[in-house]
Amino acid sequence: MTDDRLIIGRILAPHGVRGEMKVQSLSGEDAHFKALSRVWLKKSGREFEMKVRGVRGALPNLIIAFENVDSPEEAGKFRGAEVLAERDQAAIRKDGEFYYADLTGCMIVYNSVEMAEVKSVWDNGNCHMFECELKDGGVVQIPFQNQFIGDVDTDRKQIELLVDWILE
């Protein structure tokens, strides 16, 4: 994946008999899906460039169709695939929102000291979580919540940690 593409969704399952697929929007928005003309589907380490034939429905029931995918059997091959789009085709970020790709690789900084690096970001259902590698090689998870995280500067690739005990 290049820095110019972001994961915007996930293929859930085939839909109907014409090769359409149910798709989950990871941003919780759907307007950007309806403007897509091409995406990449990533599954098992392989990427497939796909031309979008159409998108219909509304959250949480978005349905996407691709050129040259005309049956439920063909659509089923993409179950679980990540949907990637060019950065300028992703949902527009509001103030205080970040793309996961921009947070990955940031340094967790406490009192001006780099403590760890963000290796991945995910949503655990209650909040977003950072999986971080400590300087000594250990791994910790840090909730992306105001009581733990201060300023986030993706340009400088730094995230302020407000309490150090969470690294123990």
From TrEMBL:
Pfam families: RimM. It is found in: Cytoplasm. Keywords: Chaperone, Cytoplasm, Ribosome biogenesis, rRNA processing. SUPFAM superfamilies: PRC-barrel domain, Translation proteins. InterPro entries: PRC_barrel-like_sf, RimM, RimM_N, RimM_N_sf, Transl_B-barrel_sf. One of its GO terms (molecular function) is ribosome binding. The keyword Nucleotide-binding does not apply. GO terms for cellular component: cytoplasm; ribosome. The PRC barrel domain binds ribosomal protein uS19. An accessory protein needed during the final step in the assembly of 30S ribosomal subunit, possibly for assembly of the head region. Essential for efficient processing of 16S rRNA. May be needed both before and after RbfA during the maturation of 16S rRNA. It has affinity for free ribosomal 30S subunits but not for 70S ribosomes. Binds ribosomal protein uS19. This is Ribosome maturation factor RimM. It comes from Salinispira pacifica.
